[in-house]
Amino acid sequence: MTDLVDYQFNDGVATITIANGKANALSHEVFEALNSALDRAERDEAVVILTGQPGIFSGGYDLKEMQKGPDEASALVSVGSKLTRRLSAFPFPVIGACSGHAIAKGAFIMLSVDHRIGIEGGFKLGLNEVAIGMTMHHAGIEIARHRLAPAHFYRSVVNAEIYSPEGAVEAGFLDEVVAPEQLMVRANELAQQFRKLNMRAHKETKLKSKAEYLALLDRCIEQDAASLGLSG
Prior knowledge:
alpha/beta
């Protein structure tokens, strides 16, 4: 695809890999490349594995872009929210292969795919927005509320608690944790299981079960675009 996002298609599975520097930062260019990769996966009618670099799935938004000013930050957050909304309604199964740390937008992506696999080790996962002076946006609150365990929603969103991979399973950021060398083995094993699903039924059931949530997310994205309280 590009230097920022790699696309590999094999045996009905599209592996999409984010590769943007040490933090795997999510910039406008990365989001554009991710959307292009997802377009291709739809054409290929592929089960998707979304992953990052060894040790880091993503540390979140590109801070250089976020620090340019409120308008630039709002624009990037809007693009990111639309990407997570797309993942939530993607017509084919999406597996998040969390290759290490997943912070802020990296964690929101994990909250938006169908199945999440993490790896053992000293990795951090969670939503650090409040800890770094960012007021959580409406879409982010609802993405977290939709997927996190109720006991961890407040701890994550309001208190910015950060989790180990094992704690992230309990909280709801991940579904399972494996040894690092088993990450892609397990992801591909699960992808082949998902390929056996009836994809029409998968898509229609996903959209039906998430109808109210997706409509709420659309409203939140519009609300955030109008006025996004990023600092306070």
